[in-house]
Amino acid sequence: AEGDLDVRGTLGVAKDAPVGFRAIRLNFNLDTAEPQERVDSLLKLTERYCVVFQTISLKPELTVSERR
User: Using CA atoms, how far apart are residues 11 and 54, in angstroms rounded to an integer?
Assistant: First the structure.
């Protein structure tokens, strides 16, 4: 995996720099003799059932709370 990140935002050194990744790329290098149809199916299933992929792509509700 690789992504685009401006660390100035994360480090707080530039207020105009965003915090967090602006793009994430997943690249798979497969050594297989399987037909392309099966590889396509594998990638589709990976997207469908990968918890991290689904969490990032669906933008879940996020709450912040405090207790004292």
Answer: 27
Total domains in the chain come to: 1
3-state percent helix, strand, coil for the chain, nearest multiple of 5: 40, 15, 45
Domain that holds residue 9: 2-58
- Return the half-sphere exposure (C-beta side, CA atoms, 13 A cut-off) of residue 12: 0
The mean pLDDT value for 14-41 works out to 96
Q: Would residue 66 count as lying in a domain?
A: no
pTM: 0.73
Show the tokens assigned to 28.
């798979």
